[in-house]
Design a protein that fits this description.
By secondary structure, the protein is mainly alpha-helical. The protein has helices at 2-23, 56-62, 65-95, 101-128, 136-170, 172-177, 180-204, 232-261, 269-303, 308-321, 324-335, 337-373; strands spanning 44-45, 51-53, 208-211, 217-219. Helix 1 runs parallel beside helix 7 (180-204), helix 4 (101-128) packs antiparallel against helix 5 and helix 5 packs antiparallel against helix 7. Residues 1-7, 16-50 and 353-374 have low confidence and may be disordered.
Length: 374
């Protein structure tokens, strides 16, 4: 079963790139004048349909300290910590643990985190170069889709882990009657299909834009205006279906688990720590960016305008949400007993090796001293 996830990961990436390449199109000369999707931008069209002028307020945002220094610094920290941590976690989950239902969900969560790590070098380069995209339209679409796919894919798999814990602890007799491994595999496959379907709009619409009065090309920050109000309804749907509903399900599941476990007066430290980590991920990392995205999209839908200051805060909150990748390895630790046992065995082996090494070293020193005294 574990081998299935590796080709699935690469197949997902290839599918995104295929959509991007197949849908790459020229701008429509009959479309309305463009404006910023995420900024209050005043753009003017010239004779070349692919060139527009960017107003000073948006240009200032795209060249300020927050977007060119702070954002790439945050993504760099996440890459340096998250890539090795999730890589090791994926190896342990895939090769060294039993394939229980929770392991399937944890393994898919690790895959989502590793896929996110693959796009971080592009994001870091983009922001460090002054929000200048050098990798073409197809890759811009793929990176944008993978970015949002990771956020909401991670949330859905965290919800699945919570539901699995709820069934096994609150309704153990129901859990015994279910084919949980098969169900976990089918649910995991279904979530990937949902995530792919959810990011298709990002693959079908032009994401990169170049301008007459600046020397850089943006990716996903500013794009041509749509006749149907652009991406505001899309992002509203993402926040409601991909964040709000899973958050309610997670709170309900872990609340029911605590009510069930507290009267038993047993040591349920791993479950409580898992609950704390999942809620911490939602409150600190996922909630700010989704709330800001919801408010911004709702305001844009009602008033047909965007708030520059709100978008600045949103981009920072969006970068901070990537720190979830650094928290997920701890979730693997507390969610899987086999994962904990594997980590503890590795740590114990290292300690025993160090003790033996230090013991041999001290014996050698004693022998040397005795020889010198003789």
């Amino acid at each position: 079963m574990a081998e299935w996830h590796i080709p699935a990961m690469y197949g997902f990436i290839l599918l995104l790139l295929a959509f991007s390449l197949s849908q790459a199109d020229n701008c429509d000369k009959n479309s309305t004048l463009p404006k910023g999707r995420t900024l209050v931008a005043v753009l003017t069209r010239n004779n070349n349909c692919s060139k527009f002028s960017l107003d000073d307020s948006v240009k200032a945002h795209l060249t300020n300290l927050e977007t060119t220094i702070i954002l790439p610094a945050i993504y760099s920290i996440v890459l340096l910590i998250g890539l090795p941590a999730n890589g090791v976690a994926f190896w342990v989950l895939a090769a060294k643990t039993k394939k229980s239902p929770s392991t399937f969900f944890l393994l898919n969560l690790a895959i989502a985190d590793l896929m996110f790590a693959l796009i971080l070098p592009f994001k870091i380069s983009y922001h460090f170069l002054g929000n200048n995209w050098l990798f073409g339209e197809a890759l811009c679409r793929a990176v944008s889709a993978l970015f949002y796919g990771n956020i909401y894919g991670s949330i859905l798999f965290l919800m699945c882990i919570s539901v699995d814990r709820y069934i096994s602890l609150v309704h153990p007799f129901m859990a015994r009657g279910l084919q949980r491994r098969k169900a976990a595999l089918c649910v995991s496959f279904g979530i990937w299909l949902v995530v792919i379907a959810a990011v298709i709009p990002l693959l079908l619409k032009q994401q990169s834009s170049s301008y007459e009065n600046v020397s850089f090309t943006t990716c996903h920050d500013v794009e041509l205006e749509c006749k149907d109000g652009c991406f505001s309804p899309y992002f509203l749907s993402l926040v409601i279906l991909g964040f709000a509903i899973p958050f309610v399900v997670i709170v309900y599941c872990y609340g029911a688990i605590l009510i069930k476990l507290i009267p038993k007066k047993k040591d349920h430290g791993p479950i409580i720590r898992l609950l704390a980590l999942v809620l911490l991920s939602f409150i600190l990392f996922f909630s700010p960016c989704n709330v800001l995205l919801f408010l911004q999209s709702l305001r844009a839908q009602q008033e047909r305008l965007k708030d520059n200051q709100m978008y600045i805060w949103y981009t920072i909150a969006q970068a901070l949400s990537s720190f979830n990748n650094c928290i997920d390895p701890f979730i693997y630790y507390y969610a899987s007993r086999d994962f904990r046992a594997m980590v503890k065995s590795v740590v114990c082996c290292c300690k025993e090796t160090n003790k033996k090494t230090s013991g041999r070293t001290s014996e050698t020193l004693i022998l040397k001293k005795s020889i010198s005294y003789n």
